[in-house]
Write a structure and sequence with these properties.
The complex is a heterodimer. Chain A has 15 helices and four strands. By secondary structure, chain A is mostly helical. Among the domains of chain A are: about 210 residues, Cytochrome c-like domain (Cytochrome Bc1 Complex, Chain D, domain 2, Orthogonal Bundle), CATH 1.10.760.10; about 110 residues, Cytochrome c-like domain (Cytochrome Bc1 Complex, Chain D, domain 2). Chain A has a two-stranded antiparallel ribbon. A two-stranded antiparallel sheet of chain A has the order 3-4. In chain A, α3 packs antiparallel against α8 and α4 packs parallel to α11. Chain B is of the alpha+beta class. Chain B has a five-stranded mixed sheet. In chain B, β6 and β7 form a beta hairpin. The chains are: A mainly alpha, B alpha+beta. At the A-B interface, α1, α7, α11, α13 and α14 of A face α1, α5, β10 and α7 of B.
Chain lengths: ~450, ~325
């Protein structure tokens, strides 16, 4: 009889083993027939974000209750499910879908620029978004990023619900940690978006974002990081086009869909075009003005998409060529941070930064960012910096701000902005280390009795 | 969601099917051939023994010895391997003997037997003595690995003596990466190094996923975790230490490389405690520089980069184009 018993135990064991072994038989690439999902999440229109987060939220993130809280305070939430057929008479939802497919293809075979728009492909290649690199980037993204950032870059991947702060939604074209100089545009013109440079994207991938759930991918090597950065741009540009068109459509607002915000006089358009031609290396400014005006004022989605991608690609290229200038460090290098500089930085900090970084960031004073998620101004006493801990990274944050989080750039004055900037950086570098602060500053920051027990007193 | 595709050329696909067919076949075979179980067991045991004996010669043996105590750990491993191997062969031999000698005979009822007190006593006491022996033999090694040995730089609860560690660093595990912080080697010794693990100094060097050291360096690690339990494991060092939330767990090693190594040696740091969905991805590198000088070059380069006050050099497609 013992043999009969073994008969009973063999089959479940074999079945379990088969299931366990089969579970590893997935493929690393996306399937070829897979398409990016259309946007369904709400578009948050934070023209005037509330300067306070809803009470009772201890942590930054994307709490489910926030949409209602936002709507109750007059913030507009546009729901793509309620899209009407306006403002075009044709079936524009499908047109938009087709445009996205033709310009960006699918996750399995990503590209940038439709085959009938070779000019876009040239620009994309210049930016390094070649088809082979995008394919490699998509493969890595599928393996390493999709769990949190989602297939279309929507930031709601499978594990995002448990993460604080929430993973980045790449589909608005906004990036936090950038080192790009601002374009100076005359008033009345839609400001150019704050685009990240190649360096910025690769730095975030290489070092991770300390203090968040974004880990470091340094061991992948530079080529892989470049491929991921390229694919992230691909996702971002795709999402941004979708976002912008939907935003305009949901607002029933044809103006949003034009590249010029003010209802334009022809004269102004020419000026605008000339401006773009210098900053973004647009085509010959004097040519086909009539055509340009016609396209801008009565856009079809097809024409609009092409024009928009063209502009965004040029903006990225321009951003790479237009880094934020870093002034020379006015104090001797390789020396301890000068006390006078730290004190000057402290004065600047008290004047400009404490509104949000209350108690040097130790108080949790939650705010909103443009994605409608709750963010926390950094605790600067912790020696933890999301955007990098090099002094030059701190300088970038100070001099450029973090545009999507409404962190403004610091006002460094006119007399010696370089010195003021470095003073602030020096103060921030010394802030987490009480023994580095001049005694009067230390007393103000840590209090007479609150001097942190140093490891090496 | 994506659908999973089955790849018929993957051997892992056929493995469970082969197992199932083998099991069913064996079951049916044993109905007709009373020695089927004997044959299976003989083949399996012979195969396992042959694999074990052959593995050192085909590169399936232990990884390189990379620390001062790795030889001791290997000796203990071999001792236990020898003892358990001996008893494995002994007990399996007995099983084969019984399977051959007492195979079912048609028409004969099995003979019921009751236990043998003397036999049971023997096979309890003998392994008991062996286990106690192993426990005693491994004690000095264990104590040394846990910092209770004669190394003066580890004694007296950490750096109070003049003999300090060459490299002091904290490794903070988090889902899913290793955040590493080095104390400036030229800084004065610490009165309370454990406190330094939670109180960074301005001169510390921060890094991610890479621990650098050089041969012969007395490396003291202070392990911490930001979230769940992780485990710092470098197979070559024979060092595996859990990181517990809320605690600073000190450990140490002295890396060794074969004499004459002129390139840097890279070993994998793997998390050895299931720590979440991406546990498999929690990897780092332990980089052993060929000598102290090249380590110091690396350190000063990294420290200079960390205190960079100018724009980093351009990289990327656009930068390459202009070059």
């Amino acid at each position: 009889m013992p043999q009969m018993q073994s008969n009973v135990t063999w089959f479940p064991a074999a079945l379990l083993m088969a299931l366990a072994t089969l579970s590893g038989c997935g493929r690393v690439e996306w399937n070829d027939d897979l398409e990016y999902p259309d946007r369904t999440s709400s578009i948050v229109v934070l023209d005037k974000p509330p300067d306070q987060a809803p009470p009772g939220f201890p942590l930054p993130g994307r709490p489910a209750v926030v949409p209602e809280w936002l709507t109750a305070r007059g913030v507009t939430l546009l729901n793509p499910a309620s899209m009407s057929e306006k403002p075009w008479s044709d079936n524009w939802k499908n047109t938009l879908h087709d445009e996205l497919i033709s310009h960006f293809a699918t996750p399995g075979k990503p590209r940038l620029g439709a085959p009938d728009a070779p000019a876009l492909t040239v620009l994309a290649n210049e930016l390094g978004l070649t088809e082979s690199k995008l394919a490699e980037g998509a493969r890595l993204y599928r393996r390493l990023c999709v769990q949190c950032h989602g297939m279309s870059g929507d930031g709601v991947g499978a594990s995002s619900a448990w993460l604080s702060p929430a993973p980045r939604d790449l589909r608005t074209g906004d990036f936090k940690f950038i080192s790009t100089a601002e374009h100076k545009l005359p008033s009345g013109f839609q400001p150019l978006k704050a685009r990240p440079r190649h360096e910025d994207l690769v730095r975030s991938l290489r070092s991770g974002l300390e203090g968040t759930s974004m880990p470091s991918f340094a061991l992948l090597g530079d080529e892989s990081l470049e491929a991921i950065a390229a694919y992230v741009l691909h996702l971002s540009i795709r999402g941004e086009l979708e976002f912008t068109v939907m935003n305009g459509a949901l607002r029933q607002d044809r103006e949003t869909l034009q590249l010029v915000t003010k209802s334009p006089e022809q004269e102004e358009l020419i000026r605008y075009k000339r401006l773009l031609s210098t900053t973004l290396e647009w085509e010959d400014p004097e040519a086909d003005v009539d055509d340009f005006v016609a396209k801008q004022s009565s856009p079809s989605i097809k024409a609009y998409a092409e024009k928009y991608i063209d502009r965004v690609l040029r903006e990225y290229i321009a951003a790479n060529k237009n880094p934020l200038p870093v002034p020379a460090y006015p104090y001797p290098e390789n020396q301890p941070l000068p006390a006078t500089s730290i004190t000057a930085g402290h004065t600047l900090f008290k004047a400009q930064c404490v509104n949000c970084h209350a108690d040097y960031g130790r108080q949790s004073d939650l705010r909103f960012d443009i994605w409608g998620s709750v963010v926390r101004p950094a605790n600067l006493t912790q020696s933890q910096y999301k955007g990098g801990r090099r002094p030059v990274d701190l300088y970038y944050r100070i001099a450029r701000g973090i545009p999507p989080c409404a962190m403004p750039k610091a006002n460094l004055g006119d007399t010696d902005p370089g010195r003021a900037g470095w003073d602030l950086v020096n103060f921030l570098q010394a802030l987490p280390h009480p023994d580095q602060l001049p005694s009067d500053v230390r007393e103000q920051v840590y209090g007479p009795s609150r001097i942190k027990l140093g490891a090496n007193p | 969601m994506t659908t999973q595709q089955i790849d018929l050329s993957e051997w892992t696909f056929w493995l469970p099917i082969a197992f199932t067919i083998f099991g069913i076949g064996l079951f049916i075979l044993s109905r007709f051939w009373t020695r089927a179980w004997f044959a299976t067991f003989t083949l399996t045991i012979a195969g396992v023994t042959a694999l074990t004996v052959a593995s050192p010669f085909v590169g399936w043996w232990l990884p390189a010895q990379g620390s001062s105590f790795s030889g001791e750990v290997d000796n203990l491993f071999l001792l236990i391997m020898f003892l358990t191997g001996l008893f494995f062969l002994l007990t399996e031999g007995l099983i084969l003997f019984v399977l051959w000698n007492h195979a079912p005979k048609p028409g004969t009822a099995p003979l019921p037997i009751h236990g043998d007190h003397r036999l049971e006593l023997i096979w309890t006491v003998v392994p008991g003595i062996l286990l106690a022996l192993i426990a005693v033999i491994q004690m000095p090694t264990w104590a040394r690995m846990k910092g209770q040995g004669n190394e003066s730089w580890l004694s007296a609860r950490y750096e109070s003596g003049g003999d300090k560690a060459d490299l002091l660093l904290t490794v903070q595990g988090r889902q899913w990466e290793w955040r590493v912080r080095y104390r400036d080697p030229s800084a004065p010794p610490l009165a309370r190094p454990l406190e330094w693990a939670t109180h960074p100094e301005a001169s510390d060097l921060h890094a991610v996923n890479e621990v650098h050291a050089y041969p012969g360096a007395k490396v003291r690690l202070l392990l911490r975790t930001q979230d769940v339990i992780h485990s710092f494991f470098v197979p070559e060092l024979r060092l595996k230490q859990d990181m517990l939330p809320g605690r600073t767990v000190p450990t140490w090693f002295i890396p060794t490389v074969p004499a004459g190594t002129s390139n840097e040696t890279r070993w994998e740091i793997a998390c050895a405690e299931l720590c979440g969905g991406n546990h498999y991805r929690m990897r780092g590198h332990l980089v052993i520089h060929p000598d102290k000088a090249s380590f110091e070059t690396w350190y000063s380069t990294a420290a200079r980069e960390q205190s960079r006050r100018s724009r980093p050099p351009e990289t990327g497609p656009l930068a390459r184009k202009t070059n």
